[in-house]
Design a protein that fits this description.
alpha/beta; Rossmann fold; seven-stranded mixed β-sheet; 7 strands; 40% helix; globular
Length: 246
C-alpha cells in the first residue's frame, strides 16, 4: 500500500488509542507509563519473550567466561536492566552493575536478584545508555544490552559509551528487535503502528535498522545474525542477536 494508506491506518489506530493520546496531551500518560504501566507490561512481556529466546540466550552467553579480566574477575555492566531477565545466564561470581533510565523496576528486579544469588550485584545506576559518565572508562569486561536500543535517544551515542566503558578486548552482547525487510508486509505494519506504539510503550521504535549502527561502530570483531522471535499480535518479530569485541 502507498503512503496515504499508511497515514490513513495510522489515523485509525490513533482514534482507537485516543484516550492515551488525550492523557499524553494533559501530561498524565508519561508519568503513569513510567511508574506503573511500563514496569508492569515489561515484566509480563519479558516472561513471554524469555520463553521464546531462552535457548538463543544460552548460546549467546555461553562464551561470557572467556572474557574475564587477567585478574580472573568478570565485571559486567547491563544497560537497561529492567526487571533483570538476563541474570540467570551470567556465570557464578560475575560482578554486575545494573543501569536503567527508569528507576521503577525495583520489585521485579529484586525478585530476579533473589532468584539468581550466584551473581554479585555491585550497584544500580539511574542512567541513560547515551550517558554512562558514572562508569569509568575501560572499567568493565562485558556490556549487555537486550531490548533496549529500540528505546534509547541515540543508538550511536549509546554504542560510543559501550566502547568507552569496555576494557580493550572486552565484549558487548546484544539482542534487539529491529525493522523488518522494507519490501515486506511486516514492515508496512511496523510503519502503521510506529507512532502509537512509540507513545504507548515508552519511546520504543519499531523501524530501527540497528545492525547498521553496529556495523559502523568501531568494534574490532562483530558476530551478528538475524533471527525471528514469534510474539503473536506484535510487530516485533524480526530480531538481531550477537556480540562485538572492542
Amino acid at each position: 500500500m502507498t503512503e496515504p494508506g499508511i497515514l490513513f491506518l495510522r489515523a485509525c489506530l490513533a482514534l482507537l488509542a485516543m484516550p492515551i493520546y488525550l492523557l499524553s496531551f494533559l501530561g498524565i500518560w508519561e508519568p503513569f507509563c513510567k511508574k506503573i504501566f511500563f514496569p508492569f507490561f515489561l515484566e509480563k512481556l519479558s516472561a513471554v519473550h524469555e520463553g521464546k529466546v531462552k535457548k538463543q540466550k544460552q548460546e549467546l552467553f555461553h562464551n561470557l567466561p572467556n572474557f574475564k579480566s587477567p585478574s580472573g574477575e568478570l565485571k559486567l555492566l547491563e544497560i537497561g536492566t529492567g526487571c533483570g531477565p538476563n541474570f540467570q545466564f551470567y556465570p557464578p561470581g560475575c560482578r554486575v552493575t545494573c543501569t536503567d533510565i527508569n528507576p521503577n523496576f525495583q520489585q521485579g528486579l529484586s525478585r530476579n536478584m533473589n532468584k539468581n544469588q550466584h551473581v554479585q550485584y555491585e550497584r544500580f545506576l539511574v542512567a541513560a545508555g547515551e550517558d554512562l559518565h558514572q562508569v569509568p572508562s575501560g572499567s568493565v569486561d562485558a556490556v549487555v544490552c537486550t531490548l533496549v536500543l529500540c528505546s534509547v535517544q541515540d543508538v550511536n551515542g549509546t554504542l560510543r559509551e559501550v566502547l568507552r566503558v569496555l576494557r580493550p578486548g572486552g565484549v558487548f552482547y546484544f539482542l534487539e528487535h529491529v525493522a523488518a525487510d522494507r519490501s515486506s508486509w511486516r514492515y508496512f505494519w511496523q510503519q502503521v503502528c510506529y507512532p502509537t506504539w512509540k507513545l504507548v510503550f515508552a519511546g520504543c521504535c519499531l523501524t530501527r535498522e540497528i545492525w547498521k549502527n553496529l556495523e559502523q561502530a568501531n568494534f574490532s570483531e562483530l558476530s551478528l545474525r538475524h533471527t525471528s522471535v514469534a510474539l503473536p499480535w506484535t510487530p516485533i518479530k524480526p530480531h538481531i542477536i550477537g556480540y562485538a569485541v572492542k
